[in-house]
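My convention is simple: the sequence line spells out the residues, with the fold written below as integer tokens. I include a record here:
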Amino acid sequence: MRTSGHFARTALLAVAIINLIGAPPARADGEAKLLAPSGTLRVGIYPGSPTSMVTDAAGKPHGLAYDLGGELAKRLGIGVDYVRFQRVADIVTAIHDGQIDFTVTNATPARANEVTFTQPVLAIELGFLVPANSPIAKVEDIDKPGVKIGVTKGSTSERTLPAKFKNATIVPAESVKVTIAMFGRGEIDLYATNKPTLFEMSDQMPGAKILDGNWGLEHMAIAIPKGREDALPLLNRFVTEEQSSGALDTIQQQAGLRGAIKAKRE
């Protein structure tokens, strides 16, 4: 015959199991509401860079921001909405204004005033691309009167390079796609940005060359709107897991992301 103590222990065990099973969904639901108040994770992307979004030969999209955004939405159990922009600067503005929930971009001090960043996902070399038959063979050939350096409008390159090159002219371009056409019209002599984007461009420009060395590093990190800092522990765990599991390596390979190095963990 079962005692009342036995039934009490069984009831307590049942409550413990219910609590154990019920806790994670409740927490995940709270994290989802914090990161994506609309119920869908709005991921900001711009075409033409493996750090954001490119398409493979079959027309399938890949990219650091694209794939990490999709994976995070899956973990949170919510849908994902990819919102396209022409430039990363426009995405940062949209995150600041709360119109976008997530992207991956260079975590500069200036951008950190506008959005909140996680720990670095990976580091990327910054470099220069020159077209076929260019007289510019090395970085030392750049800083001369008449040399026109193309940069993306609103980019880190546009803010940084004028201090590095006093004699060359900095020429802002609306987008990566526009830049390739500018080469063809002779409006720029070289282009400066992160090497993954330069490699992607060089694939479309026969004979183009990426100069040896680099002029700095971009520290790519997840960006979210300010006011959602309570989600940082979750996002930093997510970044660490993507790095340690090999998932990040797969994302880089699928996107053809070249010129990246492993980020130092904080």
Notes: The longest strand covers residues 116-130. Confidence is low (pLDDT under 50) at residues 14-26. The chain has two domains: 10-123+219-262, 125-210. The domain at 125-210 is CATH 3.40.190.10 (D-Maltodextrin-Binding Protein; domain 2).
